[in-house]
Amino acid sequence: MSFLTVSNVHHTYFSSEAATEALQDINLSIEKSEFVSFVGPSGCGKTTLLSIIAGLFQPTAGKVLIEDQDVFANADLSIGYMLQQDYLFPWKTIEENVTLGLKLLNKNKEESKGIASTLLEDVGLPSIEKKYPRELSGGMRQRVALARTLAVDPKILLLDEPFSALDYQSKLKLEDLVHKLMKEYGKTAVLVTHDIGEAIAMSDRIFLFSPSPGRLYQTFEVPADLKNLTPFEARSHSSYSELFQTIWKELESLEHQ
Ligand SMILES: Nc1ncnc2c1ncn2[C@@H]1O[C@H](COP(=O)(O)OP(=O)(O)OP(=O)(O)O)[C@@H](O)[C@H]1O
Question: Which domains occur in the chain, in start order?
């Protein structure tokens, strides 16, 4: 049994004027501790599928199971979501932001502070507990958002373009950090990205979707020699360029269909 299975998922958005078929017959599975990416042209349903995996809404048909439990029916399944914006509360300190989820779970205050301090150290930001978000750079804020996501020890991390608003150097550094922490913590993660290079450098497998309606078009296994490298190192490996060319060509062909 896989850790996560998406079975026969279809999704149509209905408005008073139109029905948009966003996803058609999606079937895939993800193993525990695996890091996968969803890539594909704009509008192919990546964010829709990620939201369905998060249990934010029910698909028109089909289901998503995590460890055999339906994500939509089990609101208590702990799923971490990280987005392009950090959504830190400006009026709360960094410590309060990181411990917010723990507070909602009624965790002991001192224990929560301990978890926050360890995680902030893990993301390379020790001793900033009493600062406010406005005192930090964009990259630092995203690292705080990562610590906040990890604080509740989620079963899976869903990452929707979390690096795309950052400058290139911060993006590469954060990719390395997320990759390292996911491996250390043995977390399962799904990344939505427009950046093929990022998908190759970070993932074990890549799912390429085609648009109108969104379908799973092809799956790529990232070569083993890249998986043992940091994303930064992977980007200068010959296997990286080969896979990049292959996926690029597939994407080009999809965009001209
Ligand atoms: N709330 C909504 N109501 C109606 N249609 C929607 C809604 N959200 C998305 N869609 C449509 O569903 C399709 C899939 O959208 P989705 O945002 O999932 O794609 P995406 O691959 O994440 O796109 P992008 O890469 O541009 O972020 C698109 O045709 C989009 O216009």
Answer: 1-74+189-257 (3.40.50.300)
